[in-house]
Design goal:
Elements lengths: L4 H7 L6 H13 L8 H5 L2 H9 L7 H36 L6 H32 L2 H22 L4 H20 L4 H13 L4 H18 L6 H10 L7 H23 L3 H31 L2
Helix pairs in contact: 1-8, 2-6, 2-12, 5-6, 5-13, 7-10, 8-9, 9-12, 10-11
Length: about 300
């Protein structure tokens, strides 16, 4: 398994901010998504999985669920048709680059491409969620905010109770597990490189949780749904990073740089067997993407 969302927070608990989250999304994407078992199995069931995930935040009525299914189908059709071919090109470029030693600059270029991919998803995704928000009752909105507050308390208990040693061990184990999924067992120098990186990380869980709390409070106020609330929600999502304290931004950038350098060093030190395993993963994801694109074309052709 690749680093989960929780694992990513362990590295530096700032992932709920959009920009750092995208940076470490790149890390997962660089190592070719997080394949639990079958990419095609997972992707072809997003029309079921996404409503199920939303249901963890708010209970939808039957009519709302039916409307959600129609809107989600259009969104997923667009994503399969327009975005998956871009992902395939991205994957091919990464595979080609891995034939030579990888550089931190290349990793940053991947980050830029991943950010553009995020921005392309963000706009239709936000429009989709705003339409859903228009249909929710006041009680459903209150339930949603309550779930967000409960998650905040859960994260505070999970992350703030750790001492520095526990935090660094969590980071190390998350990185090691992810890399070993794609490379196989790491050797001693590779593990030591990860250990060194974790020692260089700055603690950011308190800052992240403060940001998340402030963001949730602002969102809750916007979701009172007074006239113009859609524009306020859009601004909250789009402008999250505009008011970030420069010192906090520097902290996030430091941690990003540390982890990025460690990833490059481990990838470049891979053995022949590790390289075979890595390229096998790449080939598997390439096959999955091609199949998903082909299935989308067939489904489109079959529509009246």
């Amino acid at each position: 398994m690749a680093l989960s969302t929780s694992d990513l927070r362990v590295i530096s608990p700032l992932r709920q901010r959009l920009r750092p989250w995208r940076r470490y999304f790149l890390w997962s994407f660089l190592l070719f998504l997080s394949a639990c078992s079958s990419t095609t199995f997972f992707y072809n069931r997003l029309d079921f999985i996404l409503p199920w995930y939303l249901d963890r935040y708010v209970d939808l009525e039957r009519a709302q669920s039916q409307k959600l299914d129609i809107q989600l189908e259009a969104l997923l059709d667009w994503h399969r048709r327009e975005e998956l071919p871009r992902y395939l090109d991205f994957l091919d470029d990464i595979a080609e680059d891995l034939a030579a030693p990888l550089s931190v600059v290349q990793l940053q270029n991947y980050a830029d491409r991943a950010e553009q991919a995020w921005l392309r998803i963000r706009d239709p995704g936000l429009e989709f969620l705003l339409r859903l928000g228009e249909d929710l009752s006041d009680e459903q909105i209150e339930d949603f905010i309550a779930v967000m507050a409960k998650k905040q308390a859960k994260y505070e208990g999970k992350y703030l109770d750790r001492d520095d040693k526990e935090m660094r061990e969590d980071v190390f184990e998350g990185l090691e597990e992810t890399l070993e999924d794609y490379l196989g067992r790491l050797d001693k120098p590779q593990r030591e490189r990860l250990r060194t990186a974790t020692e260089d990380l700055l603690r950011s869980d308190t800052v992240w949780l403060q940001e998340r709390s402030a963001w949730t409070a602002e969102l809750a106020q916007a979701l009172e749904r007074k006239p113009g609330w859609q524009q306020r929600v859009t601004r909250i999502v789009y402008d999250w990073e505009a008011d970030l304290d420069p010192e906090v931004e520097a902290l996030y950038d430091h941690n990003t740089t540390v982890v990025r350098a460690a990833i490059v060093d481990v990838l470049n030190s891979r053995s022949e067997n590790q390289g075979v395993r890595l390229y096998k993963k790449i080939d598997g994801f390439r096959d999955d993407l091609n199949l998903l694109i082909s299935q989308g074309q067939s489904q489109l052709a079959a529509k009246p």
